[in-house]
Amino acid sequence: MIEVRDLQVRYAGRLVAGVPELDVGAGECVAIVGESGSGKSTTLLSLLGLTENADISGHVRVCGVDVLTASPRRLREIRGARAALVMQSPQSALSPATRLGVLMRRALRLHGVGSGKDGRLDEIMAESVAAVMLDRAILRRYPHEISGGQAQRFAIALAIALGAEVILADEPTSALDVTVQAEVVGVLRRLREERDLALLLVSHDLALVSTIADRVLVMKDGEVVESGPAARVLTEPSHPYTRELLEALP
Amino acid sequence: MTSPQETTAEVPLRRLLPRVPDRFAALGAVLIVLIVLAAIMAPWLAPYPDEPRPLEGSLPPGAAHWFGTDQLGRDVLTRILYGARTSLSIAVSVLAVSALAGVTLGVVAGYAGGWVRDAIMRVTDVFLAFPALLLSLALAVVLPPSVTTVILAIAVTWWPWYTRLAASVAASIATRPYVDAARCLGVPAPLIVWRHVLPNSLTPVLVQMSLDAGGVILTAAALSYLGLGAQEPTAEWGLMVQQGQTLFTTNWWIGTFPGLAILVTAFAFNMLGEGLRNALDPRARKVT
Known about the structure:
The complex is a heterodimer of chains A (about 250) and B (about 290).
Chain A: E1 2-11, E2 14-24, E3 29-33, H1 40-47, E4 55-62, E5 65-66, H2 72-78, E6 83-86, H3 100-110, H4 118-131, H5 148-161, E7 166-170, H6 178-195, E8 198-203, H7 206-212, E9 215-220, E10 223-229, H8 230-235, H9 240-247
Parallel strand pairs in A: 3-8, 3-9, 6-7, 7-8
Antiparallel strand pairs in A: 1-2, 1-4, 4-5, 9-10
Helix pairs in contact in A: 4-5, 5-6
Chain B: H1 23-40, H2 42-45, H3 76-112, H4 114-129, H5 132-142, H6 147-173, H7 177-184, H8 189-225, H9 237-245, H10 253-280
Helix pairs in contact in B: 1-3, 1-10, 3-4, 3-6, 3-8, 3-10, 4-6, 5-6, 6-8, 7-8, 8-9, 8-10, 9-10
Subcellular location (chain A): Cell membrane
Keywords (chain A): ATP-binding, Cell membrane, Membrane, Nucleotide-binding, Transport
Family (chain A): Belongs to the ABC transporter superfamily.
């Protein structure tokens, strides 16, 4: 679903993220780990063509679309509908003066999901909310009335309702407390199995990564220093930086 | 849950309505409601709605005419009530035109950034470079004196402030995660501006409008006072003050009561605006 070759993202000539190879297939979960500023979030954004004022070279295919050469219109079609982004700060990612149900309905209409009969739209909404174990009543709430964990699960529900095949998650749990993190991770893992979602996760939380990822890329200063199966990278790291990261675990 | 950056811009108005802690703001709101009601109900409230009155000369305030009658024998209270209609509709029109033009341009400038922003803001600067009252005066001199002229002349100097305000608010809204999220969902830019940037930029604009209403009424009164606005026989407070001025030493009531009406209305709008602003931005609140 995601295919990256020789991706280089530069801001004002400086290399911010360089990824020689990254593949995520359906039902797979790949995690990019590294400290702040290592280029992991930039990599994620570049997959949807959301990096502004950046020079990008290489090949990026997401859901069969060549992101770097696609027209803005074509990009808008895959954003959300086929590849959805789950952001770090769950509540601030929801427009504050709009009920969640309205937000979801608009997103679905925008991408022509369940168009025509309203009944079908309501059905899709109810189903997706149930899939992340939220109560339907949440659709009548405003963003400031729900918790961080609920907001994050709502974001995932939105991705499912839109029929996304790929979920890109940027530190999806770092703004949440530990018990809520487990909920969100549980939901992600279950959906990945049930719906064959491709999951690309950016995180600095190695504990989280070890529970969900199949493969891991370790980034430092914009470059991939190590990559491989999660089991190997997290137990027998070959790069000193990865060892450092692992040792930093409590 | 409320982070420090989340100030004026993002608090939905709905959340504020239950808490108007400020007694002055409440007083302002009550006064405004009364003034608006008085303006709407003028034909029923006014003691002598049927002009013209028989010429009986200017009478001092008394039981028959609470605020006296003017040099043409017309009831001053009646004229003040009708004048409220003129002044309020000028204020509403000016603010509506200014906010509509100003906010549209400002939100576009703030969200788009780059050369679009530069172009819009430079035009705004040109308008702001003229002293506002002089520009209004110049326009009012060129155009035939009327209420419409007053509205136009004031709106031309008023909108750039709204452009500035909306542009700065919209620029900060544009960097909010929910705007990024909308882009991530593939929402086209015009729809992002319409659905997310605009509604979330409106609160400070509404506050500014209530703060400005008093100023607009004063400016309109000033233009009419100078004979550039409303003309006889339209009842307009500024015009009434001007007519009463020459007779002040002998018939003080002709100019004084419309002057008080201007004062009270401007005061009420300012109180409400201050109160709204304080409720929205805790940092602007005075320590008591």
